[in-house]
Amino acid sequence: MDLPVMPPVKPMLAKAVKKIPPGMQYEAKWDGFRAIVHRDGPELVIGSRTGKPLTRYFPELVGALRERLPERCVVDGEIVVAHDGRLDFDRLSERIHPAGSRVRMLAETTPARFVAFDLLALGDEALLDTPLAGRRAALERMLDGVTAPVHLAPATRDADLAARWFERYEGAGLDGVVAKPLDLPYRPDARLMYKIKHERTADVVVAGYRLHRSGPVVGSLLLGLHDDRGTLQHVGVCAAFTAKRRAELVGELEPLRMDPSDGHPWAAWAREEAHAEARLPGAPSRWSGGKDPAWVALRPERVCEVGYDHMEGDRFRHTAQFKRWRPDRTPESCGYGQLGEPVSYDLADVLG
């Protein structure tokens, strides 16, 4: 491969802001795997956000990208999987599997799509120093009339339309809006764009914690919500505490420590088969690597308020943010019913 921009390339990133800034280009924030595609004739590499290749996990996209992209180009975008008219990150995550036979089967049953939103090189020309407006115009010309499973990401300079996208597109599984300055060059691994994500709060039960890698202090709190049957389901974690606060939490939570076998609702967490019947902490995951799944069980008596952006099925999609303790709430009152449900919106209407 001999391109003006060679792999690996770490993508340009966005920093979080509260409001949609004026005077920029706006796009939907896709909930998938960020990917930079390098194509040089028959050679094609799909690089991940970390720079490691994703090519082997998406064989159906390799063929589609060869057919739909120019002979020599470097394109930034997102790999997504759709199900029932919305993005499905869980099904997308299943594609990262060591068994080739499993990958090929999933490529047929849950095929992926590639949504392109930036152009880093075309032919012999590197476009990293070209302002965004120029890169976008070149991308639109390059992908004019492109067909699925390759898509051109919708973009607008109308801030009011971007605000409507922010409200509507969540129902299709997207998680916000990205704003990009029109004169912005492409700078790998730099946070020069802006992301606006949905912010919500929920009252959750704290039923345990994991230790931090730095020592015997709290790393993250394990959070639960009651389902319609009254069963406490593990829905995610909240973290991002200061070092001082991590140490303080150990002492604050010490009176609640218990042996899981003494009636904790997640006592069966260590049995792999139990994870098929309920959502428990410590579930086997290809993302876990060598991380210790063990955790400290607490009597599920304390409630805290957390901030979150959106749900993926019956769990928080991302790490939640601790807001405050809620001594006025009972654990039994913390159920799924308090969570807002976005209005359904078909992904096909987003992609046109």
From TrEMBL:
CDD domains per UniProt: Adenylation_DNA_ligase_LigC (cd07905), OBF_DNA_ligase_LigC (cd07970)
ATP-dependent DNA ligase family profile domain: residues covered: 114-227
Keywords: Ligase
EC number, as in UniProt: 6.5.1.1
Pfam families (alphabetical): DNA_ligase_A_C, DNA_ligase_A_M
EC main group: ligase
GO molecular function (one): DNA ligase (ATP) activity
Catalytic activity: ATP + (deoxyribonucleotide)n-3'-hydroxyl + 5'-phospho-(deoxyribonucleotide)m = (deoxyribonucleotide)n+m + AMP + diphosphate
Top-rank taxon, per record: Bacteria
NCBIfam families xref list: PRK08224.1
The protein, known as: DNA ligase (ATP)
Protein source organism: Streptomyces omiyaensis
